[in-house]
Amino acid sequence: MRRIAIINQKGGVGKTTTAVNLAAALARAGRRVCILDLDPQAHATTHLGVEPDGSAPSMYDVLIDSRPLAETRRSVESNLNLVGSDINLAAAEVELAGVVGREVILRDALDADTDKFDFILMDCAPSLGVLTLNALAAATEVFIPLQPHFLALHGLGKLLETTALVAKRINPYLHVSGVILCMYEAATKLTGEVLRDLDAYLEKSRGAAVPWAKAQVFQTRIRRNIKLAESPSFGKSIFAYAPGCNGAEDYAALAAEVMAQTPTVLATRVTVSDRSRAQVVASEAVIL
Ligand SMILES: Nc1ncnc2c1ncn2[C@@H]1O[C@H](COP(=O)(O)OP(=O)(O)OP(=O)(O)O)[C@@H](O)[C@H]1O
Ligand SMILES: [Mg+2]
């Protein structure tokens, strides 16, 4: 199983669009997929055609009431499941403030879940609060969607530092495995410069003891495509809404790249020693 947190504290960069459409592409390729919507905005939930009106069990019940994931999960398409969000989740940050081990509630819920998936994709809010920390503590990998404009790298350092802190104190399995370029527009001088800076930043860390030492920029660029922006309001993935468009082509190509990574990713994971894992589990460090 690959547990992937899709994070960027910068808003509107394509996290939800990527979570939903990558998940749908993987499901269509025959993989068993579950999306966890960890954003109180509930955009992934809405995008998948589920009303986030608080009437059904959600991620809130998992985090606050220890409800098993199996009781909150629903099937939204063949091979594609969702644990939805709703506005109640906004209160979770405050309600969890005094709870010991609050960062690892989701990890424990996933460990206790007997239903196995090939991919768990976690759609995160544009913040580095306790909900995103739960995703980072539960994940084995991070994907970072990035819009290649001139402020794109602004904040990336902080994001990567957060993954390093989580890897050190809570989750030694955590690796940043990919940067996904979203809303990509035909190569301009500016785009080229941003990509060069990004490559240089990542290259600097090769071989270092940081979670992003092996991070790759995915070859697939998600082009700007109006159909991707339209599909959420119909409650459909791009494959159900407009299967022939560039957006569908790009997310299918990204899914193929992600699936091709799997053997390498799984081989890398076993290099984390059980001892460090045991130490970390014992310490249950609070990093906020
Ligand atoms: N490739 C694309 N082409 C055109 N529009 C896109 C593309 N990707 C995303 N969008 C649109 O851009 C907006 C922001 O995308 P999205 O909601 O995926 O970002 P986000 O990072 O999840 O935002 P937030 O930080 O608020 O959670 C949405 O309206 C979405 O439909
Ligand atoms: Mg979002």
Give the strand content.
Answer: 15-25%
> Shape, please?
globular
Structural class: alpha/beta
Q: Termini, distance in Å? A: 28 Å
Q: Regions with pLDDT < 50 over 5+ consecutive residues?
A: 277-288
Query: How much is the average pLDDT?
Result: 91
List key phrases describing it.
alpha/beta, 13 helices, 8 strands, disordered C terminus, binds magnesium ion
Q: Concise description?
A:
By secondary structure, this protein is of the alpha/beta class. The protein is built from 13 helices and 8 strands. It has helices spanning 15-28, 43-47, 59-65, 69-72, 89-95, 105-112, 130-138, 156-169, 189-204, 226-230, 238-241, 246-269, 274-283, and strands at residues 2-6, 33-38, 73-77, 80-83, 119-124, 141-146, 175-184, 216-223.
Task: Give a verbal description of the structure.
The chain is an alpha/beta fold. Helices cover 44% and strands 17% of the residues. It has an eight-stranded mixed β-sheet, sandwiched between helices. Helix 1 packs across helix 12. The C terminus is likely disordered. The site of adenosine-5'-triphosphate has 19 residues, from helix 1, strand 7 and helix 10.
List the helices and strands and how they pair.
Blueprint: E1 2-6, H1 15-28, E2 33-38, H2 43-47, H3 59-65, H4 69-72, E3 73-77, E4 80-83, H5 89-95, H6 105-112, E5 119-124, H7 130-138, E6 141-146, H8 156-169, E7 175-184, H9 189-204, E8 216-223, H10 226-230, H11 238-241, H12 246-269, H13 274-283
Parallel strand pairs: 1-5, 1-6, 2-4, 2-5, 6-7, 7-8
Antiparallel strand pairs: 3-4
The protein binds adenosine-5'-triphosphate and magnesium ion.
Magnesium ion (MG) is lined by residues 15-16, 39, 43.
